[in-house]
Structure formats: structure tokens, C-alpha cells
Amino acid sequence: xxxxxxxxxxxxxxxxxxxxxxxxxxxxxxxxxxxxxxxxxxxxxxxxxxxxxxxxxxxxxxxxxxxxxxxxxxxxxxxxxxxxxxxxxxxxxxxxxxxxxxxxxxxxxxxxxxxxxxxxxxxxxxxxxxxxxxxxxxxxxxxxxxxxxxxxxxxxxxxxxxxxxxxxxxxx
Amino acid sequence: xxxxxxxxxxxxxxxxxxxxxxxxxxxxxxxxxxxxxxxxxxxxxxxxxxxxxxxxxxxxxxxxxxx
Lengths: 172, 67
Hints:
The structure holds two protein chains of two kinds.
Chain A lengths: L6 E6 L3 H17 L14 H12 L3 H20 L4 H5 L4 E3 L8 H22 L10 H18 L2 E3 L12
Chain B lengths: L2 H18 L6 E4 L9 H13 L3 E7 L5
């Protein structure tokens, strides 16, 4: 066994991954269809949000689940940069998200993630002023959880830029 | 649960991550923490197998994520 640690950083290989996915999907369906996707409802939710918030979500505490997911994003920002707000993390914290679709849109991509984390800051502040945060609809709550999951997934592929890499463009 | 089903669960989890991740980016997978009914050791074994079969490429592997 080459890899023993529990934490993997990996890339998929196309088209081998797609072929293997289809092959194992059909095998799994053949073997036991009932066990394949009993957590389809959790599709796309980040594992950290899933482990910390889905218990609350499933028990009907939607507002608490959503608020906790926002706090997980803030925790992640603090862990990465020492700052827990999106604007500070990308400004003073010099956070840079890798993975833009092309070099010339790297700034746009980083601004998008910055504003996503800032939106989460604002939502958290707005929702923390009431006990139920006006989230009665589980679908809406799930959509907020998906937003936090998106932010966390993007933050996983990040770095801290030094002074010479043009990061000041992100500060505005 | 049969071996194929366990492998499929790992593949399904990876797929849900790559669907969200920017194209071509590296994704993180925490064996044992991904909420898919599998244990840490099982997932590590499966990820090793997927890497050996050339389905995934493991760029880094750690025993701890906070380094």
C-alpha cells in the first residue's frame, strides 16, 4: 500500500475515471440497489458541513444548521489566514484561490470567491439577529448549506500569496 | 456491502467533489470523514487501488491535515 495517511489530495484522470465510475455504478446497482444512494439528498454538500450540520438539519433545526455552516466557513478562513471575514482574508490575509479556468480570469475568479465569503459573512450577521432566522423551508436551508459547501470546497484549493505576486489587485 | 459497492461509494464521493471543484483542480479527500458508511482503513485501501488502477492521481498524502 503506497499511501497510508487519511488525508489525500488527488486529481482524477479522464477518461479513466468516467469509465470506472460507470462500471462500478452498474456493478453496484446490480449487487444492491438499495444501498447505492441513500444519501442522494446530501449530494454536493461538503463533508465538514455534512458531519457538523446535517444532524441539526435532519432534526429540523434548519436555522442552526445554516448558521453553523457559515461558522465553518469563517473557521476555515481563520485557519488559512488568521482573519475570519472574507474581505480581511483576501485583503490583509493575502489569500489566493487556485483553479481559475484561465490565467486572465484569475482575478475575476478570486473576486468571486471573495464576494462569496463576504456574502456568507453578511448572511450570518443578518440571520443571527433572530432565533429562527426566518428559515422554515428545508429546501432554502439546504441551498444555504450548499452555498457554504461551495465556499469551503473553493477554499480547499488556496494559497497565501506573497507581496510580489500582484495580490494587491484583490484589495478594493 | 460488496467490494464493488464500497468502491462505487468512494467514486461517487469523488465525483460529487469534482462536480463542484474548478476544472483540473486538486480535490481533498479525508478517508473516514466523508460520511459514506465506510471506515478509514477501507477508504484508504480503495484510494490506493484507484491510484494503482490509474483512475486517480494522488498528488499528496498526509496523516494530518494541519501542517
